[in-house]
Automatic annotation (TrEMBL):
Function: Catalyzes the condensation of pantoate with beta-alanine in an ATP-dependent reaction via a pantoyl-adenylate intermediate.
Source species of the chain: Nocardiopsis sediminis
Molecular functions (GO terms): pantoate-beta-alanine ligase activity
Note in the entry: The reaction proceeds by a bi uni uni bi ping pong mechanism.
Subunit structure: Homodimer.
Positions with biased composition (Low complexity): 15-31
This enzyme's EC code(s): 6.3.2.1
HAMAP family, per the entry: PanC
Protein name: Pantothenate synthetase
């Protein structure tokens, strides 16, 4: 595959097979756990796709994968205040609910769960789910409390929706690993399915936050996928070679206009998210987080060493 096809080179698995959307099927919209409970008996084997809305092709791919494996698909749309830090973009996070409902109808979603903040958090959330040490590194270090917020809302969604399976993007690789661990450690009985990252043709991983990027910022941001590609191309050289190939791309991007300011670049064990030693063999993930202008972006590529 050529340099012009970063999606194919960065994704190790094929994306979920596309299914013809059940055009025009209007999903039932539930706003409360009680409304969900009334719908649940008719849904059979149920897949949940948890989202914060602003649905894009990455979410549509999750929904298509979910439809392949379940009788019914529920999509939750909830911008979760618990996972945003005080200086993050909670207020300006996009909330295009009508467009999201239309996207869900096009994708043949059966139920949309769109609760109000007061429904999810009727009072102080005193009891939360703590991710342990996996949640304190990388994203957890740069966004303190982020994974507590994610796990708490995901646990609540699981209790309210009662899915058999739940679908998460590999794009948020640490989130996926931490959710898997929560389900395992707390015996939640929901099968967690990871779906490969969807990329735009220029290589940028799809994200609701890409909408914040100006054209020039977007150009600079492409350094993230280029760095991952350089790392993946160096995988036969082992962890040291992988990291130095990726670092070289990011070092050049640090002097671009606008510059790419790296929060972290790391090669981690795919299950534990601890950094791998130089002689590591097994499944790893090369992860990167960086800021371009006001926008913070994350990306990763899974690698087998
Ligand atoms: O990945 C997301 O969109 C969110 O973190 C999630 C899983 C929906 C929880 O709010």
């Amino acid at each position: 595959m050529s340099e012009q096809d970063p999606q194919g080179r960065l994704n190790q698995q094929d994306p979920a097979p596309a299914r013809t959307p059940a055009a025009g099927r209007t999903p039932a919209v539930a706003r409360t756990p009680e409304e969900l409970a009334r719908l649940r008996p008719g849904l059979g084997r149920l897949a949940l796709v948890p989202t914060m809305g602003a649905l894009h092709i990455g979410h549509r791919t999750l929904i298509a994968a979910a439809r392949e494996q379940a009788d019914s698909v529920a999509v939750s749309i909830f911008v979760n205040p618990l996972q945003f830090g005080p200086n993050e973009d909670f207020d300006r996070y996009p909330r295009p609910l009508d467009a999201d409902l239309a996207a869900c109808a096009e994708e043949g979603v059966d139920v949309v769960y769109a609760p109000a903040v007061e429904t999810m958090y009727p009072g102080e959330q005193m009891v939360t789910v703590h991710p342990g040490r996996m949640g304190g590194v990388l994203e957890g270090e740069f966004r303190p409390g982020f994974f507590d917020g994610v796990l708490t809302v995901v646990a609540k969604l699981f209790h309210m929706v009662r899915p058999d399976l739940a679908f998460f993007g590999q794009k948020d690789a640490q989130q996926l690993a931490v959710v898997r661990r929560m389900v395992r450690d707390l015996g939640m009985g929901v099968a967690i399915v990871g779906v490969p990252t969807v990329r735009d043709p220029d290589g940028l991983a799809t994200s609701s936050r890409n909408a914040y990027l100006s054209p020039k910022e977007r150009e600079s941001a492409l350094a993230l996928s280029r760095a991952l590609l350089a790392g993946a191309d160096a995988s036969v050289t082992g962890p040291v070679g992988i990291l130095s190939a990726a670092r070289a791309v990011l070092a050049a991007a640090a002097t671009a206009a606008p510059p790419v300011s790296v929060d972290y670049l790391a090669l981690v064990d795919a299950q534990s998210f601890t950094e791998v030693p130089g002689d590591f063999r097994g499944d790893a993930v090369l992860v990167v987080a960086a800021r371009v202008g006001e926008t913070r972006l994350i990306d990763n590529v899974p690698l087998t060493l």
